[in-house]
Amino acid sequence: MSGLAGWVQAGGFLLMVSLLVAPAGGYLARVFNGGRTWLDPVCAPLERLVYRVCGIDPKRSMTWVEYARGFVIFGLVSMLAVYAVLRLQQFLPWYDARHLTTPLTPDLAANTALSFTTTTTWQAYSGEATMSYVSQLVGLAGGSFLAGAAGLAVGLAFIRGLAAPGDGRVGNFWVDVVRAMLWVLLPLSLVGSLALVWQGVPMTFGPYVQAHTLEGAVQTIARGPVAALEFIKQLGTNGGGFFNVNGAHPFTNPTPLANLLGLLAIAVLPASLTFTFGRMIGRRRDGWVLYGAMVALFIAAVAAGTRAESAGVPAVSQVIGPAPNMEGKEVRFGAPASALAAVVTSNGATGSYIAMHDSFTPIGGMVPLVNMLLGEIVFGGLGTGLVSMLLVGLLAIFVAGLMIGRTPAYLGKALGPGEARLIALYTIIAPLGILVPTAVAVVTKAGLAGLTTNGGAHGFTSILFAYTSSFATNGQNFAGLSANSPFYNGSTAVAMMLGRYALGVTALALAGEFASRQHRAGAELDAVPTGSLLFGVLLVGTAVIVVALTFLPALALGPLVEHFLSAAAAR
């Protein structure tokens, strides 16, 4: 694909996302505000049945403590259920001992169960050689539904907290999860999975196929109920792959249309939450400013990634002439499309990929790394992206208010010491969850043992990428790191827990602080105008500055020094 065609593809994708923001965001607002939708005749009776069976009072609104308790308990119970399925897979139907050759050890099973119930889907294994059909369909796909619904619920609770009239209530976690499942994830996944089957993605419980090649060799072709997992992994911003090569496999991503549907599934719902936010707080302009900031960061990432991969490797270009970097990429996608997918998946908390990021150029590989370090605010995971962007906005308001001598306030509510402490806590959790385990890994034998392919600056980047991806609940990795070991299974699990629950509970606590505050007369006059271009610039600038101040030394030790070494070697 030529450079111009790549830019047309990226522009067309962004245009489609932008056109879908308002209708999808309006639909989400109606669903979670109890408005009428065209799915009510089917979903409403099912919702009432779930409430009766589970003993849920849909009229009861929770404090942030009750909501956070439900969020954590739901996640841990979901993890235990998936763990049980994985540990028992050899006793369940469709277990193929001949082809499932990777031992599903307790530490690997626990890491996988946690990753799929925190929307991380970090995979230290090859799917077709490790997981049975039941594990893939019931455990991993089921965990993707539950985790996606819980993440969306937290995002809606955060919005309610900002807009609450002072009653300290942020909604009902169980109601939000049920509605997210019945009105959003299940119907969209059903339609999306059928579309993938139409495009050629397998949906079968038949055994692996033995094929005879032209050379006379026997080749095993793995297959299974692929379509059921593939769409929800994108929609729930989970990622993961039925096969080891994820979206690069022709059974998961067979056509350009299938690839486009996957990228749209990743981006549209998180992007549309900006419109949902604007409608629920009664200030739609604020929502569009948030979306505009996301678009600006998205364009910058696509430009940097596309330029790096299209320019290729300097040493190789000296020999064969100017050529894009095609190492680790599908010829049918090419460099620009691979760079676009890398940006979308790394921004969307979705560890799905169509090219091996480990084979990207140093700058090309740094782009998805920086996207995750930014908190995946473009367009983010279900709920989590909007929360991260709003936290950046609150930090920008606080700093700007202090600089100009005005009372920091948002939506008519002043930012007091309690809010400031929670914003600071949310900001420092990331370096604790990323830099500390990275430092431990690079100075211990157990950590360095994972560098079986690369060392030096690239090896450091592989380790940094692993913990960043785990903390960001993204799941994509540099394949040069052999992460299936007790050390990495345990340490990445800690990063996942911090990225999912420490950040989630802190965000809910901040929502509770806002929900308990009354709107103050005149507070709007003291606040930074949040519906303006100025605020959009503050958002982008604050996000970039915070990441630079926190992570630039680590980036300098990894992809940046590798880039300069690569350029020097070509001279």
Outline the fold blueprint:
Elements: H1 3-32, H2 40-54, H3 64-87, H4 106-116, H5 127-130, H6 133-163, H7 173-199, E1 209-212, E2 218-221, H8 226-235, H9 256-281, H10 284-311, H11 314-320, H12 334-347, H13 362-373, H14 384-404, E3 409-410, E4 413-414, H15 417-442, H16 445-448, H17 456-471, H18 486-515, H19 523-526, H20 533-569
Antiparallel strand pairs: 1-2, 3-4
Helix pairs in contact: 1-9, 1-10, 1-12, 2-7, 3-4, 3-6, 3-18, 4-18, 6-7, 6-8, 6-14, 6-18, 7-8, 8-9, 9-10, 10-12, 10-13, 10-20, 12-13, 13-17, 13-20, 14-15, 14-20, 15-17, 15-18, 17-18, 17-20
Short description:
The protein has 571 residues and is mainly alpha-helical.
Number of strands: 4
How many H/I helical runs? 20
Major sheet summary line: 2 strands, antiparallel
β content, as a range? Answer: under 5%
Can you walk through the features of this model?
This protein is an all-alpha fold and 571 residues long. It is built from 20 helices and 4 strands. A hairpin with a 5-residue loop joins strand 1 (209-212) and strand 2. The longest helix has 37 residues, at 533-569. The model has no long low-confidence stretch (mean pLDDT 87).
